[in-house]
Design a protein that fits this description.
Elements lengths: L4 E2 L8 E6 L17 E7 L10 H6 L2 E4 L9 H7 L8 E4 L10 H5 L3 E3 L6 H16 L2 H9 L15 E5 L3 H12 L3 E5 L7 H6 L4 E3 L4 H7 L2 E4 L13 H5 L6 E4 L8 H10 L4 E4 L19 E3 L10 H17 L4 E2 L9
Parallel strand pairs: 2-3, 2-4, 4-5, 5-6, 7-8, 7-10, 8-9, 10-11, 11-12, 12-13
Antiparallel strand pairs: 1-14
Helix pairs in contact: 4-6
Protein name: D-isomer specific 2-hydroxyacid dehydrogenase NAD-binding domain-containing protein
GO molecular function: NAD binding; oxidoreductase activity
Organism: Gonium pectorale (Green alga)
Length: 346
């Protein structure tokens, strides 16, 4: 598991754990593998679920785990309501990768170390990326139409070999996309703040060129397929705007695996409706759930999924398995993995 590290918060060799999640979340079974030295103080989703805790129990909590999906998910407002009761909290872990729906001022400005599940979801998202590329390269909708009409009409298909995949945000998800694209013998270019390749990246031989953020339009123009793999932060808000979309090749395909608010959705819809780009594959949207009146539902050149490209049967179980590993580091006084930059939002 990749991720940043930081000097470890002090555990004193013991963890009193508060779990913010619906108690029926099946992935909580993974916590049976927590190492010795961990006491689960309570599990619940709302402040009312923890009303039975004594002041001494609140004061004992030094680790908080936020997890769960859908109705079982711990919410930011609930965690914020609990915050004043947790004077000795030193570490909070989020079982999700994105932080935009979690951060609040007391967490950002305070001393509590925040970690997340960055990297757990990368491979499934990368598989979706290459599936989307093939969706357009092989014109799979045409196959389905011909099958439904019992029409035998051979047609030329494209290879991904030799095509360029441009990756906006070359973190864990972007790098996973690049590795699979390279297996298809695609050319890979990427965009991130640090333009130098590490020795490990040079040895891997995946990415040919790194563009700095101020050359986004150059990356868009250089790519047959563009995949957005950034978190949503103030710096990435509407990062792909009308001008960036206009820089794409006419046959270009835009894929978004990051966050919907990183893209000017109205400008993207306009380009798709006008046929100025070939198509888009979207797993994330500016507003979720996507409203029923969105034009995206009706566009034939859009592959649309309801923010579930990483929602495998295993994803939450694997996420909590990573937390268990990190707990071992915490108890051993070792640096935690996946320490987040709370101010930057990732």
């Amino acid at each position: 598991m990749s991720g940043s590290t930081a000097p470890p918060p002090q555990s004193g060799g013991h963890a009193n754990l508060l779990i913010v999640s619906g108690p029926d979340s099946p992935e909580l079974s993974v916590l049976q593998r927590l190492p010795a030295g961990v006491t689960v103080v309570a599990t619940g989703r709302t402040p009312e679920d923890f009303a039975h805790l004594s002041p001494q129990q609140w004061e004992s909590v030094n680790v908080l785990l936020n997890c769960g999906v859908g109705k079982n998910a711990g919410k930011r407002d609930d965690i914020r309501a609990l915050w004043p009761r947790l004077p000795n909290l030193v570490w909070m872990h989020s079982a999700s990768a994105g932080l935009e729906h979690l951060l609040f001022p007391e967490l950002v400005e305070g001393p509590v170390v925040l970690t997340n599940a960055k990297g757990v979801y990368s491979h499934s998202l990368a598989e979706y990326c290459l599936t989307a590329c093939n969706w357009f390269a092989k014109d799979l909708p045409r196959l389905r139409r011909q099958q439904a009409a019992a029409q035998w009409e051979p047609y030329d298909v494209e290879e991904l070999r030799g095509k360029t995949l441009g990756i906006i945000g070359y973190g864990d998800i972007g790098q996973a996309c690049g590795r699979i694209a390279k297996a298809f013998r695609m050319r890979v270019v990427a965009l991130r703040r640090r333009t130098e390749l590490s020795e490990e990246e040079k040895a891997a031989g995946v990415v040919e060129k790194i563009f700095p953020p101020d050359q986004l339009h150059a990356l868009m123009a250089d790519s047959d397929y563009v995949v957005m793999a950034t978190p949503h932060t103030p710096a990435t808000h509407r990062m792909v705007d009308a001008a960036a979309i206009a820089a794409m090749r006419p046959h270009g395909v835009f894929i978004n695996l990051g966050r919907g608010k990183c893209v000017d959705e109205a400008a993207l819809i306009e380009a798709l409706q006008a046929g100025r780009i070939r198509g888009a594959a979207l797993d994330v949207f500016d507003t979720e759930p996507l409203t029923a009146d969105s034009p995206l539902w009706q566009l034939d050149n859009v592959l649309l999924s309801p923010h579930c490209a990483d929602r495998t049967k295993e994803f939450q179980f694997e996420s909590l398995a990573f937390f268990v590993e990190n707990m071992g580091r915490f108890l051993g006084g070792q640096p935690l993995a996946n320490v987040c930059d709370k101010r930057s939002g990732y």
